[in-house]
């Protein structure tokens, strides 16, 4: 374990996608966090600096980790500028560093987030210029220090962004324009499906392989943050503890399991997608843990061994005129599940609930989620072997 270099506990917020809040709270709890509040698309928690580093490294469903440090009421721009200027910014930013501000504004007198961010930036820069004659520069693309301003009903909370680049960008995806799922959502589907990293997992419409790659990361106990590109933002904080971070990283590297823990199998009708899935799996260094093949979903069957899980994200048919094609596809999916995967639990993630009716099975769970702007459901089907009811004597 990381050497115990305990800082005083402090409050943090982890952001996520709608529907994954409880999953993220459980991830943080497993790391030792005290969960203070599970909100909408966010989990508030507390812990020390070691936990902050570990949350960035290990949380599979977090978008970013924020560290709130100031709050005040600002009903107008004059108050926002004045209260921002009362913060001692030298505690958070050095004059030779770059910074950027992301503002989220809701139900407030000041309506425009870009204006709020600009005014906050002016207050910070003016303080440095007045006190030292020097000022940090703004870099919106790759800043040393990222600040997050959240304003709701004129209440302002300022936070340090510990993560930097969004944690969903694991770095293994070779072509991000073709993947319908981001990494956080793919991991979230697996955790919502209660996959334990041991049972057989099958994705018979795997596309570019994001679900399979995230499954292999879970099974082999690999911290997704080990793939993070560049520095985490906390590495630029004035109180960054290099020795503690080195220890946390080493723990994560040593936690990796080298022997395959589960049978992870994927297929797709498109050879191009399977090639891309192979590239992604290989880029993550997981080619020994995922078996891929070209196969129509109609021909998919369960691999040998004990039944496990089917998790899939079929097309939604968003183009006009695809209704008939989608109906036929979802009927084929249902037929395949009934004949080829008895004893499995199947999870279908879809944004086409009309076509999903053609699966011909009764969903035992319907979990609301979003894929980007698309309202989706994760549907669970229990594929019983034979009759689900024991015959009476």
From TrEMBL:
It holds the Pfam family UPF0020. Keywords: Methyltransferase, RNA-binding, Transferase. InterPro entries: DNA_methylase_N6_adenine_CS (IPR002052), RlmKL-like_Mtase (IPR000241), RlmL_1st (IPR054170), SAM-dependent_MTases_sf (IPR029063), THUMP_dom (IPR004114). Residues 51-162 form the THUMP domain. It comes from the Bacteria. PANTHER family: RIBOSOMAL RNA LARGE SUBUNIT METHYLTRANSFERASE K/L, RIBOSOMAL RNA LARGE SUBUNIT METHYLTRANSFERASE K_L. This is THUMP domain-containing protein. It comes from Hymenobacter tibetensis.
């Amino acid at each position: 374990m990381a050497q115990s270099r305990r800082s005083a506990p402090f409050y943090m917020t982890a952001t996520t996608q709608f529907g994954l809040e409880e999953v993220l709270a459980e991830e943080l709890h497993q790391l030792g966090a005290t969960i203070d509040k599970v909100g909408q698309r966010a989990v508030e928690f507390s812990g020390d600096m070691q936990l902050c580093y570990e949350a960035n490294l290990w949380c599979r469903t977090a978008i970013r980790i924020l560290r709130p440090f100031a709050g005040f009421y600002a009903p107008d721009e004059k108050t926002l500028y004045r209260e921002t200027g009362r913060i001692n910014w030298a505690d958070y930013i050095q004059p030779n560093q770059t910074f950027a501000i992301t503002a989220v504004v809701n139900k407030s007198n000041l309506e425009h987030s870009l204006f709020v961010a600009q005014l906050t930036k002016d207050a910070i820069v003016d303080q440095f210029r007045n006190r030292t004659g020097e000022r940090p520069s703004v870099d919106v693309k790759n800043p040393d220090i990222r600040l997050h301003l959240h304003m709701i009903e004129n209440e302002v909370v300022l936070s340090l962004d510990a993560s930097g680049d969004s944690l969903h960008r694991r770095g293994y995806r070779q072509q991000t324009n073709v993947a319908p799922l981001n990494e956080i959502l793919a991991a979230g589907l697996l955790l919502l499906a209660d996959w334990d990293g041991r049972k057989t997992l099958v994705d018979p419409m795997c596309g570019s392989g994001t679900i399979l790659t995230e499954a292999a990361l879970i099974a082999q106990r690999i911290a997704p943050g080990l793939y993070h590109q560049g520095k985490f933002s906390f590495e630029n904080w004035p109180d960054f503890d290099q020795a503690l971070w080195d220890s946390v990283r080493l723990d994560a590297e040593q936690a990796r399991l080298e022997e395959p823990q589960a049978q992870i199998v994927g297929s797709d009708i498109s050879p191009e997608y399977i090639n891309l899935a192979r590239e992604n799996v290989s880029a993550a260094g997981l080619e020994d843990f995922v078996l891929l093949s070209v196969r129509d979903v109609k021909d998919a069957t369960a691999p040998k061994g004990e039944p496990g899980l089917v998790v899939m994200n079929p097309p939604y048919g968003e183009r006009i005129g695809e209704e008939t094609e989608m109906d036929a596809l979802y009927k084929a999916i249902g037929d395949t599940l009934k004949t080829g995967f008895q004893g499995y639990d199947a999870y279908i993630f879809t944004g086409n609930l009309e076509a999903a009716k053609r699966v011909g099975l009764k969903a035992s769970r319907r979990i609301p989620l979003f894929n980007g702007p698309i309202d989706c459901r994760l549907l669970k089907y229990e594929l019983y072997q034979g009759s689900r009811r024991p015959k009476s004597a």
